Amino acid sequence: MPPKAKKNTLILLTNIGSTSLEQNSLEEEPFIDKAKYAMKILVEKKIFLQPKDEIGVITMGDETDNPSEVDYVKLYCDHLLVPHWDIIKYINGLEATDNPCNWIEGLHVAVSFIDKEVLDPSCIVFLVIFHNFKEDADCIEEYDSEVIANQLKTYSNLHLLFVGEKSFDDLSVSPNPSEEFVLAILNQTSAQYEQLNSFVESRRFYVAPPTNPLAWKFGLEWAGFVIPCVEYLKTIESTSTSTPWKLSGGDSEDLLENSANLDSLITGKITSKTTVMKQNVALDHHRNQVLNDNIISGYQFGGKYIPFSEEDESASKFEGTEKGMMIYGFVPQDEVNVEFWAGEGSRIVVPASEEECVAFYSLVRAMVEKKYAAIVRKVYANNNLPKIGVFFPKIDDDDIYCLIHIELPFAEDVRYFDKVPITSIEDHVSTGKLEALDEFIDSMTIGDNEEAELDFFNPGMFPNVPNQYYYNAVADRALNPTGALLPVNDYLKRYLEIPEFLKNRVKPCIEKLDEAFEECKSILEVGIEKPSVTKKIEAEEEAVQKAVADKPIISAVPMDTNGTDKRLFAGNDSNAVNLVSETFEDF
Predict the structure, then answer these.
(1) Distance between CA atoms of 564 and 549, rounded to whole angstroms?
(2) Residues 34 and 59 both lie in one domain
């Protein structure tokens, strides 16, 4: 079990003053709209992945509402809040004002708010300032950057991030007084700066933050001596997204009609107590109730049930093994075939302390030089069944030196299948067809100079589009309970569609394939039987087109024998024909 994740605090400080409506010459949206969208992303991620964290929202350029009575600075709430959809509604409702804005005064209010609300000294606080830094010189000159930097250094768990309109390189070129002050803070503290567009782009996909892994401690036995080691989980098979929303306590329509229960529909919290009676009843094959006194435990073996008493259970328990790992021997790495790799993932093994580093890394280096892998026996805990595995050494200058542990099956668990030999058809294919196939493969291959544009195609970089659409759809439904289902966002489609330059490059190759494999086209047209549903849809489309040509426009909606709404728009209106066709295509 991994250790408990620590509770974090997120403070959002944003500008909604007179300068927030200004926009860059290359941008279509004003700064305030982009900042609101960025804050919405952060709060949504907290709701889905870190619901126990706390959030505070502070606006600059707003009406004065803060304990320090600093002008034009407002606290959304005078205490920290758990992530909730009301915070997003408040952020979406923010509008620009004509009031002046000073981010240094807003930073003072934020730090005072942290002093008052964050009582746990181990709590990590993230303070994010969204601002375009366009204050006048007279508003900045009265403050000393060194004094503010020294005050920020006193907070060991405070992480400060400035999110501005310019990139960091542009910020360093001829900065205004406000930007010079930001650069001074960055140079004197561990604060960071990020451009707003890149900030949003890098956080569009919600990924759970990494947690400190819990190590499995054991002794690695080999040749009569034991090396204390620890093992960490490196990779594991991905699991599907679990739904955090639970609907309980009545029908969904009743909850929607009753505004008092609407919050329970959105948050999954039951506002009214419902008594649920549960009863477990044992029945035999004839549906007769069987008392617990007449029931004995057993196991199903085929079509029979084998009874097991407590004595049988104790006698069948496996005993005699001790926790640890033992190296049985070494084999060349190329003899451990990939098809024998088993288990749910891989793990890394490192020495438990610095005292064991010499012995451990001497073993790792020797395995690398000899190109050997180690066959090991693993017992997770005392009296557990042993498992077999393999150690692959890994030495990388950019990473830690370690052993990669992968499970292997026992000999009796391996099943061999007779594979049908693949007869080469190269002698039966013309040169023109082979060249067309080679050109098509080359056109679909992404070169090194194109990886920057398509970096998400690299191993481990492709985002989980279905998971993110799930988060977006749930968030939209929480904010708009009665609205339509959210369509797929444009930035998600980017990862699902073929890039335009790749389409243009592949198009002539596909035309060559059509010319080279003309017989395949005829086979597809003649040999493949179309499904009956497709035939029915085509027949209905033909009937609609005929009705369009022969009959005037009608306003009624005819229904077929199954009660299906056909939406027949007759007449010569081309838009009506398109509507019907699109409906069938969607179906």
Answers:
(1) 23
(2) yes
Q: Determine contact, residues 213/232, Cβ cutoff 8 Å.
A: yes
Q: Which long-range contacts (CB under 8 A, 24 or more apart) does 178-182 make?
A: 178/103, 178/133, 178/134, 178/135, 178/139, 178/140, 179/133, 180/140, 181/104, 181/140, 181/143, 181/145, 182/133
Residue 151 CB partners (closer than 8 Å, separation 6+): 111
Give the pLDDT of residue 305: 84
Q: How far apart are CA 106 and CA 101, in angstroms?
A: 8
Tokens representing 433 are 């067809």
**Does 546 share its domain with 522?**
no
Other Cβ atoms within 10 Å of 196 Cβ, number:
22
Q: Nearest CA to 157 among 119, 105, 214?
A: 119
Residue 581 near residue 569 (C-beta atoms within 8 A):
no
Same domain, 55 and 189: yes
pLDDT digits (tens, 9 = 90+) for 529-544: 444 445 555 666 566 5
Strand 8-15 relative to strand 54-60, pairing: parallel
What's the CATH number where 483 sits? 1.10.1600.10
Element (H, E) at 402: strand 402-408
Residues 566 and 511 in one domain: no
Q: Residues 130, 39: contact at Cβ < 8 Å? A: yes
Longest pairwise C-alpha distance within the chain: 95
- How far from chain centre, in Å, is Cα 99? 39
What's the Cα-to-Cα distance from 145 to each of 103, 188, 543, rounded to whole Å?
13, 9, 77
Considering the entire predicted model, what is its pTM?
Answer: 0.67
Q: How many whole angstroms separate alpha carbon 259 and alpha carbon 256?
A: 7
* 229-249 pLDDT tens trace: 999 987 665 555 554 444 433
Residues 153 and 36 in one domain: yes
Residue type, 22: E
User: pLDDT digit string (tens) for 442-466?
Assistant: 888 877 666 556 666 666 666 788 8
φ and ψ at residue 260, rounded to 5 degrees: -65, -30
The helix-helix angle for 431-444 and 500-516 (nearest 10°) equals 170
Instruction: Clarify whether residues 477 and 434 are in a common domain.
Output: yes
Q: Answer for the pair 97, 62: CB distance below 8 angstroms, yes or no.
A: yes
Q: Is residue 455 part of a domain?
A: yes
Average pLDDT value for residue range 469-486: 89
Same domain, 154 and 44: yes
Looking only at the bridges linking them, the beta strands covering 324-332 and 216-222 are parallel
Identify the top-confidence range among 159-173, 230-244, 416-430: 159-173
Type of residue found at 519: E
How distant, in Å, are the alpha carbons of 342, 519, 521, 523, 524 from that of 527? 42, 11, 10, 5, 6
Same domain, 140 and 85: yes
Domain span at residue 578 reads: 532-586
Residue partners of 88: CB distance under 8 A and separation at least 6: 40, 43, 44, 475, 479
Q: Is there a contact between 126 and 161 (Cβ–Cβ < 8 Å)? A: yes
Burial 320-329 (b: 16+ CB within 10 A, else e): eeeebbbbee
